[in-house]
Amino acid sequence: MKKTLLSLLALMATATTQAQDMKIFKAESLMEEKNYNEAVAVIKECISNPKTKKLALAYHLLGEINSRILNDEISNLQSGKCDTTRYINALEEAIEAFTKSNEIDQAPNDKGKVKVRYLNAFENSSLVKYSGNKKRIKGMLDYYGYAANFENQRKNQEGALKFFIKDMELPKNPVFTQEETAEIYKKRQSYYNKIGYYTAMLSYAKKDYNQVLKYVPYAIADSSSLRDGYLMKMDAHLALKDTAAWVQTVKEAIQAMPNNVANCQNLLKYYDDHKMNNEAKEMAEELVQKSPNNKISWYTKGCVYMNTLKQYNVARESFQKALNIDKDFVYAQFNMGCTFVNELMSIKDQLVTDRTKVDQYNKDMAKAREYYRKALPYFENALILAPSKAALWGYNLQTVYYNLQDGAQKELMQKKEADMKKVMEGQLSSEEFIAKYNIAQTSPSL
Fold first, then answer.
1. pTM of the full predicted structure?
2. 160-173 confidence digits (pLDDT tens)
3. Which of 126, 165, 273, 378 could form an S-S bond across to 337 if both were Cys, CB 3.0 to 4.6 Å?
């Protein structure tokens, strides 16, 4: 009797298994007939049944059905008839199903052994030859990016951010080994740099600064988004009150963007506001040591030695090295002129201004005018290089022209001063001023 009962139980178990196999076969048939909704319903019923043995296969089939729905909607994109909601739902379900299939497939059996069946291509029936979980997910690496774009078109920034993040993280899906994940990011670096930029931007808009810092390295790695990437990174560190990381990021930005003066100015202002003279000097020396061919590095050093340390000869040497790299670097030209004016201001209390002391007064005024003469060509170079930036060079040129009204040049300097005033007041264009006095860019020697 006992033997008969066991045989009956075994027979029932076999019948149950066969019934579940028939449901899988039925779902496959419906899928091949493109009756996707019914196919999904059948396979989900199979998955929800605790007696289903081929659960990894059932999940893979669920993923396969949804991937075919996806392919239909992708085909509709060109005609403008794509059902984006259907696309997104199918994508979410397909990735989830393939991932779950892989999880079950990789789990050890009752004997503690792992028998992977569905990771790569396999045949299950006469109807379908399956690609395997890995290949299917790998074929969908761009699909979350489309989903993000659909949500963005709907003005749903939260949805767009959600799918950009999923797009960035998909290469880390468990179907891939660590080596395969690294290879995906490497081979598709340009794509992930772009998606990482979008992810960082939307995170920045939400003020999710930790998430900004996670994805902003991708933006920084792409030259087209480098500037925005560093701005977001710097702002994120400031928002998180991590000034040390902010300083380090500004240093990196200076080295990475050799034409961006703003980074240098921000860092110098920080050191100046906090009276950090030694730190400013160390920073300047570090920059030129690490990036000796970067004009901004030498420009930064020049600014530190001119404004903070008041060592004007070193400042001029630094600005000259910046100009050796780029003779048209307008801010280096302008600040080179400033070194002479600033040095004069630093010794003005030593100069005699009492006109009754004729000899010493004349000697000291000649000394002062020499500083202005040396500054003049650099300010005029700035005028030529940036004629629209009157706020940069205008007042300085007017001051120089005023202070050089002596000797044979007196009448010329008076006219230049009067006309520069007109430029500052908008009565004369800088181009007209340049043409009237035939001003040309020069390369003065120190």
1. 0.82
2. 999 999 999 999 99
3. 378
